[in-house]
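the two lines:
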Amino acid sequence: MDAQTLPPIIAAMRGQPTPHTPVWVMRQAGRYLPEYRAVRAKTDFLTLTRTAELAAEVTLQPIRRFALDAAILFSDIMTPVEGMGVEIAFNPGPVIAKPIRTAADIAQLRDLVPERDVPFVMESVRQVRAELPKHVGLIGFAGAPFTLFCYLVSGKPSKEFGTARSFVQAEPQLTAQVLDKLADAMIVYLAAQAQAGAQALMIFDSWGGLLGRDAFREIALPPVRKIVAGLKHLGVPIVYFCNNGWTLLDHVATLDIDVAGLDWRGSIKTARQILGPKIAVQGNLDPAALFAAPDVLKSRVAAVIDDAGPAPGHIFNLGHGIWPETDPDQVGRLVDHVHEYSIKRRSA
Amino acid sequence: MDAQTLPPIIAAMRGQPTPHTPVWVMRQAGRYLPEYRAVRAKTDFLTLTRTAELAAEVTLQPIRRFALDAAILFSDIMTPVEGMGVEIAFNPGPVIAKPIRTAADIAQLRDLVPERDVPFVMESVRQVRAELPKHVGLIGFAGAPFTLFCYLVSGKPSKEFGTARSFVQAEPQLTAQVLDKLADAMIVYLAAQAQAGAQALMIFDSWGGLLGRDAFREIALPPVRKIVAGLKHLGVPIVYFCNNGWTLLDHVATLDIDVAGLDWRGSIKTARQILGPKIAVQGNLDPAALFAAPDVLKSRVAAVIDDAGPAPGHIFNLGHGIWPETDPDQVGRLVDHVHEYSIKRRSA
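prediction for all of em together
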């Protein structure tokens, strides 16, 4: 696909100028949509992630409703970890029957062979790609090793992940082993998604921001660097989102990524100064802003676009996943206003 | 009390030189101590906060064990809110039977008269002060209005406080009313603690860091500014801790506070550059570091002191409350090493 026909979102991820600021919404295929809830009323979460047709269907739902610039594969960050032989239940977050805490536990994590262990993921990528208009990008994704590690060691969702964070301190060697094994698995997993048709690959580090600067640099960052290096030959843009990672951005800037995701807490302008001109940015409207009056919402959308500035390389998004209580009409307003305001701004 | 006889921690809060870096630990009177668990085995949390003798006892427990430079009153940030007539249960976090969501709910919040509504708090301050050695400071505290508001509106603890954050967006006027009322109550509450013997006053904004920059500046900061202005005449140092507030530090710097608390996520040196020379800093070791081997712990303690630099005005603390699973012996090592290392550093 030459540059002329790239979906705008892929061009923006490469730092190229685009006619409008492209936009998608984290968790856009989710519970705020009645059509998603209708699917979930008949299907549990785990079955939904494992059934290609259903996962493709919910991936496409928000695309049918809104003028979004990208679809993101409906799946879960723990899906490939199940493929590595870990038993996981969702209640509603991931619960691991037997947390990983010893060398023997680590040895039992098997290498991931995506077409053998999670074939339904690539099948849903192919189905979505076949139905998606050419100007809409398709984003594949995986969890960052440290974030997967948090669930594997803690065994369940947690506000602070104290069990995992104290394990990092008490068992630095075992920690490095698990993270390296997870990095290898995420390389083949993301590569398989790209080969099936994903045009960008996003690495979600939901819990990287729980680490102090030294622990992040020494523990969480090396496996991300390994993943990025292992995917670079594919030529698809790579997005790394370290949630709550504002104090870590100078370390994030050392990664050979195309895009840094930003949560809603800080200023995109400040982030750009730290990240430099080679890394595009994705974000960062507060999900709470969708509860403001429509006019206020529009002014907040405009403020994010203004904050990102005139340089190319901004992908509009929320700074965190959309909340289930959100009115879908507000999402429509958001998407349309991103397009309208950014076109107006470009012509000003 | 003249400068000669000030406890080192109070001197450091005023930016004065001290023979060593003073240290205390957030939640130092807490579940990691077997003697605290022994008290709790016989007394529920609410009774403990409401019984002066017991609250004084657990406040003093860590002081008997470790060479800490300060005691912090054992209480709960919701205690004065109960005093304002709100029914609160602890399960284990605060649960509000009737969340505050309408103008009528707000009207029912009564003005706080500390000696009438929460006399046991001042009584425990007096009892602790009577038993505390002169070189050990006593810190009183309250929750910041936005943090109290999060519990009042959500009705229960939450990871994201989406209910409260969407309320801020949907009902900005009601939000401002509640926050202003809470600010007035916290002024008289903190002043009463100071009059009873607290030598420093700390405002905990546990959830301020959930706000984006604009919402923080427009919504959460004005009531904090009001509290600080209302206490300034007392002449006791005021500490403001906005947990997860690294992107908000330039706004925090506009407060007329003596000390800014810092969580473990960032560098004290960076914070000092933003806060300027007039605001002392408190923090910021990762609570997870207490799970490292003793030698590693010591090197992390030293790194925090090095990061704070040679200028006066650093109070050592964790960057967040100590975890219940922590080995008390590690706390002893931490406290002693803060003293030893900082004395060595001063004489180098």
